Amino acid sequence: DLEGSYSLGILFADHPDQVYAVRCESPLIVGVGDGESFIASDVPAIIEYTRNYYLLEHDEIAVLGKDGVHIYDVFGQLVEKELKTADWDVEAIGKGGYAHFMLKEIHEQPAAIRNTISARIQDGLPNLEECGITPEVLRSFRHIQVVACGTAMHAGTVGKYVIEKLARVPVTVDIASEFRYREPLVGEGDLVIIISQSGETADSLAAMRLAKSLGAKTLAIVNAMGSSIAREADMLIYTHAGPEIAVASTKAYMVQIAVMYLFAFELALAVGKIDADECRRLVKLLEQTPDTISEILEHKEQTQYIASSLITADSLLYIGRGLDYALSMEGSLKLKEISYIHSESYAAGELKHGTISLITENMPVIAVATQTALREKTISNIKEVKARGARVILICRENDTVDPDAVDLKFGLPEFDDLLMPMIAVVPLQLIAYYTSVLKGNDVDKPRNLAKSVTVE
Ligand code: M6R
Question: Where are the beta strands (DSSP E) in 86-170?
Fold first, then answer.
């Protein structure tokens, strides 16, 4: 009788020894321990007690009792299910000495990248064959549509810039909640990439089902093993970030972009836009990102200082061009979701078409300028906002000379290739958001009004 998406745990007064659980779209697992069982929406919740669990399908009903767990379909027929074993350990879901999960997860990024890419590189070249992606498959797509929500959508936006630049295949990026209701123009010959940490985001799942029904091939880039999106996609690349507990996504974003790079390299090679030597050079750069990120993590004091300059702000802007603009979207979302300071990201060249009127005395503007070819253009936009009273914080290379009259604070990044710079430059943006939230005394890992998995529309 109930409509919508839900998972319920139900107790009956006349069945005091049993717990009933039912899944309707929203994820539900049943953990099986030694003489005890558990219901939860995701594995991290039970891992302290048991690694063994059943993953319930839509419309299935579990009965937990003294004699163990029994699962039934909607017609009351007993269902035989595979007992799964999570390969995460308890440490993975602890804070490991860090003040917050978010900070721990930021520090886990170098390892997460290595875990995600290493098995997909052979002889220095990307190899996604075990995910169902071969050069022939790649050559068959005339258009790529990326669909995702929030941070995952921002990872897709970075992917768009990289794929179009290297492979010259057109890519459009859409928010899943828009895509699913706009009668999208996808079908045979198109690849729809769905990016999701949880693999359970309701809009992304619905968008994927729609794309499949329209005849497109779907590729899921997902972190949570066995999740709905992972199970239903035609092709699947798991990111290996491990459990991400903080609501604000950091390491999941990092590995989503890492996968987008690998995918773009392989696609560019498959369609003949780069040769094997160039592809190897790019893969090597990708393999160097973890060390460069670790370098930043060892010198993060400047991000604390920048954060302390933001806590009194009511509103701020993030600006950039090209890949820096894609990145600034993520920086802005990260800051607003955990610091509760209003912020927008804007393509730097678009400011003069309206948004620049928002600039008032002392309003912080975080400018990202890592793309060499666009640097001078962004600097001239920085001067425009500075002239209107903005307090400018610039994220650029350590060695870049900056005009002290145009920039108030600078975060210097280690030298790295322009194309892969988003993986490096996102780290100070994550840290600035983190420390701003800490300094404001907010609940960093569980910001108000937000859930880790958005399993409702
Ligand atoms: O699990 P998903 O990657 O599908 O989640 C998508 C968004 O809800 C998620 O990225 C959200 O924007 C994060 N809280 C941002 O930090």
Answer: 121-122, 125-126, 143-148
Range of weakest confidence among 26-30, 175-179, 203-207, 413-417: 26-30
Q: What is the rounded radius of gyration, in angstroms, for the C-alpha atoms of the chain?
A: 23
Confidence bin at 2 (pLDDT 50/70/90): confident
Per-residue pLDDT, 323: 97
Contacts of 202 (CB under 8 A, 6+ apart): 5, 25, 454, 455, 456, 457
What is the spatial distance between Cα 21 and Cα 280, in angstroms, rounded to a whole number?
A: 50
**pLDDT tier for residue 457 given thresholds of 50, 70 and 90:** confident
Domains of the chain: 6-91 (no CATH), 94-294 (3.40.50.10490), 301-439 (3.40.50.10490)
Which strand ranges, in their side-by-side order, compose the sheet holding 171-175? 171-175, 143-148, 190-196, 217-222, 235-238
Nearest CA to ligand 1 atom 8: 150
Which residues approach ligand 1 with their CB closer than 6 A?
149-152, 196-198, 201, 204, 247-249, 333, 337, 453-454
As a whole number of angstroms, the distance between CA 428 and CA 301 comes to: 10
Q: From the alpha carbon of 452, which atom of ligand 1 is closest? A: 14
For ligand 1, atom 16, name the residue with the nearest CA: 248
